[in-house]
Design a protein that fits this description.
CATH architecture of the largest domain: 2-Layer Sandwich
Structural class: alpha+beta
Bound molecules: adenosine-5'-diphosphate, magnesium ion
Number of domains: 6
Helix content: 25-40%
CATH superfamily of the largest domain: ATP-grasp fold, B domain
CATH class of the largest domain: Alpha Beta
Number of strands: 40
Number of helices: 18
Shape: globular
């Protein structure tokens, strides 16, 4: 490689910082991290040759501070800055600030970022370049009445989109005129808070939509190619969940037409480097060469770039460095071919059964899969903490195979080998998705997940009762016995079980907190030294079912039946994993417990750290079960808080605009008797 770039500062964090460092190291470059206070001990910081603190945890005070990052780059003598995705990656001012400081920005020219930065201007540009765009209004007027009139002319259903949008935020589908105004208000509010720009566009909602995007690459010598398509139609709330390449069922003529259109769009803005042109395809009659429309161009490396790497055999980050250092692309379009099929799943710390709210906390156990055709990109290690400050992605699991079926089989099996304890995760949800008949057959669109959500998430039967009793056994036996290889096989109860050292045989009540609720389990001795555990008199587990499988301080992993795994985190907490669901069980310590957080009763609490953006009730109001009481905005998304039961509002304990902490009581209801 051209010797001009010998060091790189990555202005990002997490898995993408690790990903970029990996290639940089292979190319012999010096690697420089910048990090917020919350990331001081993060994996990407440990991997870098050098690291510079850039401010407090909130991104606005650290990862979004152009001046501080440029100062760190100068202090470190970095030749170039790679922005990753998100954060400053699509900010033209950042590219300009790099240039002004004499540092190479690994990305397109500021002018190209600017041209594609706003969806309205980008659509106008694409139209001029002869690329088909979704019919709609992308002009300057923003009056609600005017936009409603436009929606009527376009014809429902329509999609309202933040002009400055990204990450699926600031977007509302509207099916009838009646709902337009409320949707517009929501989209504008989200657009303002996420992007500081309330402007929206209105476009036709394409039916049976398939999200198919083209990876483009251009150099500074006028060459531009398509690295083929990715299908990202498996989405939830307009955010990608599983992505694959190539797109199932795409005719060769459509691939060629899309590739040409994407290259045209890139050339129209003088594009250089890696970029993605996103199209929405009308999939009502399958994918067809005349039924795709330009949506937007992402002027950066994409989260799902690994599937393209898998099917092309290229390292896109290496190509980015080569192009940034002035080299021409080392291939032409005709040199490129697709090899096999690749699928990526985004593994998140979130709770599918709890409305997919991000789930934070320490990763007590993290075992990511390995195997033939499997690649894992992650930015966290066992013992790390998932904080509320950033995107709660744990890892991307990528599977490559000769065929789509083989790739999906490999992905499914890899997800089955994944073990996460601490924060809840979407691993079981991803696996269900990966195995879903409609997805396997290729007959899916962007509504697939939402339509089948209940089946994919699995019925919520409440905490697993057998898991609770197994946890009670394990928690009481620890710390002395669970490490013994003969645990559960005929230990002498008289000196082995806590609480049974002396005195006559009797039952022991084990007071527990299960997912925030107080529950008592009881342990009883049976003949032969086994201990049985029961809930409300029902015997559900005994000590012979428990077998220690793995120990790595500070945790002990055990099984308690087929597909049932428990992780003893510390002396008082166990995470029980059954059918992909986690039940957190702790020994109840009356001196160390926040009584306010036990049993929800009439307390309506913040589901996570965030900001109270709207409050719809006041003390004295009557509310019905399910009624919307307030909105908390967190991770740039709005979460409605609903009344858990009918009653009267006794107290409101926070004001709109306030920052609220996870678990903080916001509203208290007097529930109807
Ligand atoms: P890509 O197009 O590169 O796959 P997306 O369009 O899914 O990425 O996301 C765009 C940006 O939004 C990314 O930079 C990503 O960091 C961010 N993002 C994606 N999902 C979430 C999320 N659940 N919460 C917050 N930010 C997200
Ligand atoms: P973002 O910047 O948030 O990624 P996009 O414009 O790329 O916004 O749209 C995100 C997702 O919303 C798309 O992947 C697609 O699923 C859906 N979407 C966008 N535009 C349309 C449309 N006109 N019709 C149907 N679905 C759409
Ligand atoms: Mg997009």
């Amino acid at each position: 490689m051209n010797r001009s770039l010998t060091s790189v500062l990555v202005a990002n964090r997490g898995e993408i910082a690790c990903r970029i460092f990996r290639t940089a190291k292979r190319l012999g470059m010096r690697t420089i991290a910048v990090h917020s206070d919350a990331d001081r001990d993060a994996m990407f910081v440990a991997q870098a040759d050098e690291a510079y603190p850039i401010g407090p945890a909130p991104a606005a005070e650290s990862y979004l501070r152009i001046d501080t990052i440029i100062a760190a780059a100068k202090a470190s003598g970095a030749d170039c800055i790679h922005p990753g995705y998100g954060f400053l990656s699509e900010r033209a001012e950042f590219a300009e600030a790099c240039e002004a400081a004499g540092i190479v920005f690994v990305g397109p020219p500021a002018s190209a970022i600017r041209a594609m930065g706003l969806k309205d201007a980008a659509k106008a540009l694409a139209e001029m370049a002869g690329v088909p765009v979704v019919p709609g209004y992308h002009g300057a007027k923003q009056e609600p009445d005017f936009l409603r009139q436009k929606a009527y002319e376009i014809g429902y259903p329509v999609l309202i989109k933040a002009v400055a949008g990204g990450g699926g935020k600031g977007m509302r589908r509207v099916d009838r005129a009646l709902d337009f105004e409320a949707a517009l208000e929501g989209a504008q509010r989200e657009a303002q808070s996420s992007f500081g720009d309330p402007r929206v566009l209105v476009e036709k909602y394409v039916l049976s939509p398939r999200h198919v995007e083209i990876q483009v690459f251009a150099d500074a010598h006028g060459n531009a190619v398509s690295l083929f398509e990715r299908d990202c139609s498996l989405q939830r709330r307009h955010q990608k969940v599983i992505e694959e390449a190539p797109a199932p069922g795409i005719p060769a003529a459509m691939r060629d037409a899309m590739g040409r259109a994407a290259v045209e769009a890139a050339k129209a803005v003088g594009y250089v480097g890696a970029g993605t042109v996103e199209f929405i395809a009308d999939g009502r009659e399958g994918l067809r060469a005349d039924r795709f429309f330009f949506m937007e161009m992402n002027t950066r490396l994409q989260v799902e770039h690994p599937v393209t790497e898998a099917i092309t055999g290229l390292d896109l980050v290496e190509l980015q460095f080569r192009v940034a250092s002035g080299e021409p692309l080392p291939f032409r379009q005709d040199d490129l071919a697709i090899r096999g099929h690749a699928v990526e799943a985004r593994l998140y710390a979130e709770d599918p059964a709890g409305g997919f709210l991000p789930s934070t906390g320490k990763l007590w156990a993290l075992r990511l899969p390995e195997g033939e055709g499997i690649r894992v990109d992650t930015g966290v290690r066992e013992g790390d903490v998932v904080t509320p400050f950033y995107d709660p992605m744990i890892a991307k699991v990528i599977a490559h195979g000769a065929t789509r079926t083989q790739a999906l089989d490999r992905l499914s099996a890899a997800l089955g080998r994944t073990l996460i304890a601490g924060p809840k995760s979407n691993v079981a949800f991803l696996r269900a998705l990966c195995d879903a008949e409609g997805f396997r057959s290729g007959a899916f669109d962007t509504g697939f997940i939402e339509r089948d959500l209940d089946a994919l998430v699995g019925a919520d039967h409440g905490p697993d009762r057998r898991a609770i009793t197994a946890a009670a056994l394990a928690l009481v036996e620890r710390p002395r016995n669970l490490s013994r290889p003969d645990f559960g096989r005929g230990l002498d109860p008289w000196d082995e079980l806590v609480g049974f050292t002396t005195g006559p045989r009797r039952d022991t009540v084990v007071p527990l907190i299960v997912e925030g609720e107080r529950i008592d389990a009881s342990l009883t001795f049976a003949e032969g030294g086994t201990v049985t555990a029961s809930l409300d008199g029902e015997v559900l587990c005994d000590s012979r079912a428990i077998a220690v499988s793995f120990k790595r301080a500070p945790t002990t992993t055990f099984t308690f039946g087929e597909g049932a795994t428990g992780i003893l985190a510390d002396d008082a907490t166990a995470f029980m994993l059954t059918a992909g669901r986690q039940t957190r069980v702790s020994l109840f310590d009356p001196f160390d417990v926040d009584l306010d957080r036990i049993g929800s009763g009439g307390a309506v609490k913040a589901p996570m750290h965030g900001k109270l953006v709207a409050l719809f009730v006041a003390a004295g109001d009557r509310v019905e079960k399910g009624q919307r009481l307030a909105i908390v905005e967190a991770m740039k998304m709005e979460h409605a808080l609903l009344a858990p039961a009918s009653g009267a509002v006794a107290e409101v304990s926070a004001e709109p605009g306030a920052q609220v902490a996870e678990g903080q009581r916001l509203i208290t209801l007097d529930i109807d008797a």
